[in-house]
Amino acid sequence: MKKIVSILLIFSVIIALCLNVSAASVYDVGSFSKTSYLSITNGQATCKSSYSESNGNTASVKITQSLEKHSFLWFWDTVGGEWTTNSKKSSVSFTNYKSGLASGTYRVKSVFTVTTTSGQTETVTVYSAEKTIS
C-alpha cells in the first residue's frame, strides 16, 4: 500500500511540475523585439540597445543601459554608470560609448520598461554576448 501511495505521490508531483500556467496579455511585452549588443575595438566599447514592435501597441519605452565587467564567479560590476533614454515611439535604438577599458570580460545590460497602449507595464532585462579584452 505504501508503494502505491508513494508512486501516486511522485506521479502527482511530476504532473504538477509539468503544468505551465501563464496569464500573458494580448500585448505580451516579452514578444516585442529587444536586443542588447556590445562591440569592443582598441579598448573602446560600443553599447547598443534596440527595441521594436510593429503593431503600434507601445505607448512608451524606457531603456536603461550599462556596461558591466565580470568581477568574480557570477558577479558583475557596472563600469562608468548608466545611460537612460525615454521614447514614445515603437522603434528605438540607443547607442553609447565607453573608452579606456582594461583587460577583462564585458557585457551590456539593457533594461527595457515598456508601457503598452492598454496600460500594461513590464520590465525586461536583456544582456549582450560577452566580449573579452586580453
Give a short synopsis of this structure:
The chain has 134 residues and is mainly beta. 13% of the residues lie in helices and 57% in strands. It is flat.
Plain-language structure description:
The protein has about 130 residues and is mainly beta. It has one domain: Immunoglobulin-like. It has 1 helix and 8 strands; from the N terminus they run H-E-E-E-E-E-E-E-E. Strands 3, 4, 6, 7 and 8 form a 5-stranded antiparallel sheet that branches. A 3-stranded antiparallel sheet has the order 1-2-5, with no helix packed on it. A hairpin with a 2-residue loop joins strand 3 and strand 4. It is flat, with a radius of gyration of 21 Å. Keywords: Signal.
Tags for this model:
single chain, 134 residues, mainly beta, Immunoglobulin-like, five-stranded antiparallel β-sheet, three-stranded antiparallel β-sheet, 1 helix, 8 strands
